[in-house]
User: What shape does this take?
Amino acid sequence: LEPQQLKVGREVFWEGWDSIDGDYLMKGVIDEVTPSHVVVIDQEKYQYRDGQLYPLPTGKFRQPVARRYFDAPLIEQILENAEALRRFPEQFRQAV
Assistant: This one.
């Protein structure tokens, strides 16, 4: 597996998590590539749960995304995020 190619006009995917939507996958089209960011347009957001993708509302605007989100193949990012979320309850208990 290789990182995604960062070229203007290509579709790219990245993942994330927030306290409202939980785990989600983003899709966008590259509009600009800078040394630190990839600017995407036409974003689509999908929540993944129970082995399915569910579309979520998102704005249609130019969004800069840090290049580090594309340094590794998407599957590696998803697995890393899942492992971090698995460890979160233990880390939270230790902090309180």
Summary: The chain is about 25% helix and 45% strand. The radius of gyration is 15 Å. The CA atoms of residues 42 and 60 lie 5 Å apart.
